[in-house]
Queue: 4 jobs
Job 1
Amino acid sequence: MSDSSTSIGQQSRTALSQGSPAISSKKTRIAMTGATSLLGRNLLFEIFKENIHDLDRLELILLGRAKESQALRDRVREMVCEMSEMVSPDELSHILDYCAHRVIYVDSELTEPYTKIDSHSLHQLQRAPIDFFFHLAAISNFRDTPAVRELLHRTNIEGTLNTLELIRELKVGEYCYTGSAYVCGTTTGKIYPDYINLDQPFHNPYELSKLKAEILVREFGTATGVRCRIFRTSTICGRLIEPPLGGVSKYDVFYGWAAFWLRMKASVLGGWSDIYTRPCALDARICYRAAGGFNTVPVDFAAKAMYQVCLQNDPGQSYHLVNDQETPHAMHIPAMLNTVNVEGTSQCETIPVDLNETEAAYYRVLGKTFTPYMTSAPMDFDTDSIRSVLNKSRLRCPPVDAANFQVLMEFAKQHDFGVEHN
């Protein structure tokens, strides 16, 4: 375990001893949707690490569903094995035993009302107050089609409303909603974590769906008095604090960008044999702002910061979980192309009119989604509301600089950027 992780654990126990909701002699009850998501699993890992010696005082309730005939219980066990490098073998065995016998698994579908939850599971949720209810389940899809818009509405908006209706039937101390820093739409410059503007242009329906869901949470908190926290994350990348460094379970956003070029290369070379060692020249002008960058936050930092806000009983409501500095396009785009060993591309400030075949494929598949972000003026996400929490826990966000970005690339490379192939 890293030194920073140790200090975080020490601070958490200090915060608990000073009277936060998670420390009384009674059991701490935590419920969570989206536990198998990238952020969800890392938050779950953090909860286990912080409570490793007090699991008897932790009651964990995970709401989710089976996937491809694999029960939620089995999905959780499989992903918890990822902690093998974070904890000792004995601690991992202890956590796996806890998952098998102590965790309460509630079979539920986010897009369905809470009344679909079976009566036994509902009783388990209702039988005692829940200290923290984390809602992390959502769909991240940046395309703009009727089918995607409908899916985003049902999952992100109606799904959030369904969890809020469930909360009305429970006793919940804090409801923690995970949103997106990009609900600011096309707004640039200084952006505060409670900035709301439904009338602004948005890059895609995903941003709008997350803002509408967030507004539902804020209105619910005002109407019911339930304490609601809003955590807005920027682009989430792999771990840069906890081992294995670079660890990630979902290869979207910039990982998906690199995967596109890997697929194009495999198509040109006629297969995947020696895909990384064989260079390939692809003539393409890639549109991005040379002086710009994007904000990406390591998933383990985001999970730690979120949990620390709750443990420290911070009085705030709205938080940006972002990096202190942007990752320059002029660094990460060449780094990704170099990782997949693609040559021949060049940078341009506007999308070319006379597209060749490679460029036409790129702008049809990725350019429509990513170019607006890659050409945007800087977004300065304000982090003042979380600063004291980070200082108390001695937690700092690792910069996604050239060295750390290469760490992310090496892990992704080992897993072919999530691309399945024969």
Job 2
Amino acid sequence: TRQSYDQAFGMLACAWAYAIDHDSNTLEYAYRTLRFLDDNMASPHGGYTEAAHPQLPRRQNPHMHLLEAFLALYEVTGDGLFRSRAAMILSLLERHFVASTGALRECFDDTWRPADGSDGEIVEPGHHYEWVWLLHEYARLIGEPIHPLASQLFDFATRHGLDARGRPVEQIDTHGAQRQGAVKLWAVTEQLKAHVVRAEASALDFDPAIVSIVCDLNEHFLLREPPLWFEELEADGAPSRRRMPTSTLYHIALAGTELLRWKSGARSPL
């Protein structure tokens, strides 16, 4: 099965690889992947279907990662094609993904209406923070002011989506009620990235919230020897490695990259 989520990461890999090797074959792979998306997965209602053979629910998550890929490819190529695709994803965020309460919905029907039942109410605070970082990246690369949704998404997650120790919980609903109280490592790393870009935008060279998040990661999640991390803390605080997707390494690496970039004064993670 060829999914839009996977195509997004394929193109993101191309952007990072091309920044290093400047190999035209690397870049051609990205363009070829985008052509595949356009030819096989473009939706008449906007964005892309979940898979080459459409399936429901449609999700904001693949589109979030497509935005990340389009921005990175725009940075390394300067091609307006990727800029226009990034703008298309931003339009979906504005028109469909954010509920009237300020929450970021996860699941939709084919026309971008909220999915039926409880699925349409699912909200993941970690994705709020991931979008905050992306909206700051969009502003940096496109040369526009930071989108107001960056603050709105940050505020909703921070107001409703944290546990007693300030960590983003796994899942809440569009009104802020907690549904799943476990804390995933990936969500904490995205919280860190959001705080980094907000500190940078405020011209801060020190933020106690960032110190707190890094200390919490070191104390409760990251280990000094294999298997290197706990994937989650359950609602009662017990560490768990029941499921350890390799995608978590992506989140850890990018959070570390952002932290080092900010401290070094570099403008771009690339």
Job 3
Amino acid sequence: VGLAPAVLRQLGEDIERMKAQGVCIVLVEHEMEFIQRACDQIVAMANGRVVAQGDFETVAANDEVRSAYLGR
């Protein structure tokens, strides 16, 4: 929660290196810009259930995801 921008940038670089090595990573995060950069596939949950899954554009366009996470 609330990582400093430099730490978040380093974490993103570390994740990119691991992905390039074929490592699968499960990431729990709410920072949408970070998710967009770091994740190939996303599973969005709200109230304990999956509400959307797919690439960032698909999940971010989902009305239930937008309501739960983006306040729209």
Job 4
Amino acid sequence: AECAIGQLGGLTETGFWWDYITGVEGGMGGPTIWFLVFAAMVMACVIIGVNKGIEKLSKILLPALLVMMVAITIYALVAVDGTLDGVVYFLKPDPSKLSGGTFLGAISQIFYSMSLAMGIMITYGSYMKKSDSIERSARNISLIDTAVAILAGLMIIPASFAIMGEAGVSSHGMGLMFVTLPQVFDQMPGGSIVAPVFYLLVIFAALTSAVSLLETVVSVVADEAKLKRRKSIVVSSFLLIVIGIIVVLGFGPLMTDLSPYDQGAGVLGILDTTTNSILMPIAAILTCVFIGYVISVKTISDEVKEDGCEFKFERPFEYMIRYICPICLAAILVFGLLDMFGIFSVY
């Protein structure tokens, strides 16, 4: 609310963000209210349906998102002194900063940004036409995802580096988004205008992702419980609200101290760490094993080549799914578990 009216002063106060999400700092309706508003928006999109909901939403929001990202990036590069040094800092490789944690963090980001091991790709794939090229779609998704990730980095890192130095880009996740960036916007020329646009962009991105996740749950519940779509939406939405409120209150009244599992972020930290380090790698390994050794890779290849579609990378795909991916994923799982339990740190 303060950001929307161009008042960034309160957001830059030390501890404001943490005080707000834990309930110490009142105002702005409280995080639970805003969660319910956001959940209602997500449920409305799913109720409308994939074609009329997420598809139309994506056609509007994602191009708008891209335009806003490009505009903010150009503005930051032009208006903020020292951003070119920030660009060099962002793009120039520094081998001394590489560690096992770097690769684990990158893999975790790939899981989320590409929606892997969550069932989202399978759910959306079920709505594709047989004539659609799966290989071309996979290639385009990978290229676009990488390009947007680089653009997001150019939008955030150079300005943060120029205004706050290396310390400004050392934080990550919620710390970078809601603690560091408000300070950057507050010192940026025209930051009171750029900040609301940026956080609107974040809401757009979160909305499309959340709709994808709820749609997957709705589809699975409908198939497994033999429910009609409307009833499946009701059940899935109820679970969304209950679990979501627990997570929101997990920063305050339900705050837990289960270090190292909570990672300093209450219930959200526990769920985030468990998902990143255990559930998604296990789901990905089981998927590789199932495709490579149970139903056979040929089944997938035949599906890709239906209606005369090409599969140029059929042989590399077979080796990746049967050998390379399971080994790499198993290593990620083992090191993630060792790091989570404090036995061996990869950072």
